[in-house]
Amino acid sequence: MTLTPERRTLLPMLGRTHGTRSASVCHWKCADACTRPDENVSGAERFVDVVRRSAHVSASRRTVLGSSAAGAALAALSVAGPVAAAPGRGGAAAPGTFGFTAIDPVPAEVDRFTVPDGWRWETIISWGDPVETGAPAFDAEAQTPEKQKRQFGYNNDYLDILPLAGSDRRGLLVANHEYTNDELMFPDYATADAAGKLRNTETAMYAHGMSVVEVRRRGPRDAWKPVRSRYNRRITLDTEFVIDGPAAGSPLLRTSEDPTGTRAYGTLNNCAGSTTPWGTVLSGEENVDQYFSKPAVPTAREARYGLTSAGRGWGAVQSRFDLANEGTRNEPNRFFWVVEVDPEDPTAPPVKHTAMGRFKHEGASVRIDASGHAVAYMGDDNRFDYLYKFVSRDTFRPGPSQAARRHNTTLLSAGDLYVAKFDGDGTEDGVYDGTGEWLPLVVGGRSFVPGYSVEEVLVFTRNAADVVQPTAMDRPEDVEPSPVTGYVYVACTNNTARTAARLDEANPRPANKDGHVVEIIEDGGDATGTTFTWNLVLVCGDPDDPSVPTYFGGWQGEVSPISCPDNVAFDAAGNLWVSTDGQPGSIGYNDGLFLVPVSGPERGRVQQFLAVPTGAETCGPQVKSEDGYVLVAVQHPGDFPGASYAAPASTFPYDGVFHGPRPSCVQVLPA
Ligand code: FEO
Ligand code: CA
Ligand code: CA
């Protein structure tokens, strides 16, 4: 089978933004961030050698990026590891991964959830399904805020199922609800009177947050199904959070509602996340700015967080979302954090960790270093923003005891915060690579940013990081360390605003519509250290498009086209899996999930495992290779230019419950 299909004419860009998403996704997901001025105007990233680099970038993929010199250099960076999956060989697979035959790319107009031969998919739970006790069945024609508070939220992003009570038949599904597509949700979106509009707004507000749902299955090869359970829980704007860490209680976090600066209500725009080694879930608060109507005169610090828009009218429901009210002026400072939820304790207030810094958190992924410290890697998903690392002060306590677990849930409350600077070594070697440094922001309880106290660094982390001049990245999204090698993989999803005058070796393409994946190797394998080496393992795109340089880890054979890497995950063998957000606008195919071996002879051999329906993004992947299944969150299905409640572009998950699309959590398992 051919994985590099005939060149096809890309979809017309009508209705697409220059950021490669559809216009409606941009509007609802991040309040048209691409059309607004860049939030980072600090001019960071000045270390590059533009002259050497520009010659390289303009060269073709085959002659430079795919050169044998490049392959040899990158092979030297690879580690001995398990052999990757063997697509097309009848399902034979190395231990710890799957055998499958890669699917063909699916044209962007096709409304179908596509899996490889020999596999099937099942919906676990969808927007509007009951979660909490007493929640009514979904009825799109009669939604109310009160119903939505107890039903599964909209636009699930991060997703995992954690084993419950040591059973392989009981689990807790945890999902984020990042944002809403109001025009697809409400029948009277365009026609409602003032009271109806207010009801819709409040319903949408409660469709944000997170869900915890107990799921059960008959046996290890069966699909998970939700059940009524005491664990079932919606986390909404009414949920009280504890603010912890060095900035808790800071005047910067106090409002008229909470003069102590130690509590917050709700979590918003929860994007990626992770499950910690101690069994809790982390979630990143990302584009929260869109929910606030701007202050009369935003400060520079507020502008750096995008608090310059008219908002979404939420202030009419809860006044804290109107920043014209001075008593709530600090309310945005109580968002943009990493939050930690303990799904096993429905009564425990979730926590916002100030020690991990405040920015547009895509997510946070933790690894326990050889020294026992918890190390978390975090992306700030905006154009020209930064990559961060947190190193816990205390060390992990192994073992199943409740005392150990309680201790481990404090690990993210105190520690050191760094931001990454990448130095290229020039492109004459045919490889995008170099060395890097973790620049200290807060270390040992001291601020390393001139003019900033510890509290100021943690609450205005973006502004503080600007001072030390880290590398401005092409929208760093999900970042995860490999459980096998400890190497760290950073999905830089795209940056069409990157100009030729502002390139560097870690962000080497102008008008980068397809994104790339950075591989970071901590020096000496010490994740608590401050130096590393790096290379680009993927420079994404359609390899059949000669106008776009691409690179696939040195692999010279056929690959699946891939664009806009967003979330990353690993199977038990340490193979990287990448999900995408934006392929329809960049290469004309529906988004999907891709296997990418990162070691051994098949390093860089991208193979597409699944494709989500039209208009959707593939989120929250979990590759449960030892348990034989994959989880994905199908976010914003049917979000296609011109689609509406009355005229949907998708009927996913094709359940007959609703005539339009419902964002859903999906399990993919052997047929
Ligand atoms: Fe919510 Fe950065 O994607
Ligand atoms: Ca180089
Ligand atoms: Ca994302």
Automatic annotation (TrEMBL):
Alphabetical list of PROSITE patterns matching this protein: TAT (PS51318)
Pfam families: PhoX (PF05787)
Domain of life: Bacteria
Coiled coil: none
Name of the featured protein: PhoX family protein
Species for this entry: Aquipuribacter hungaricus
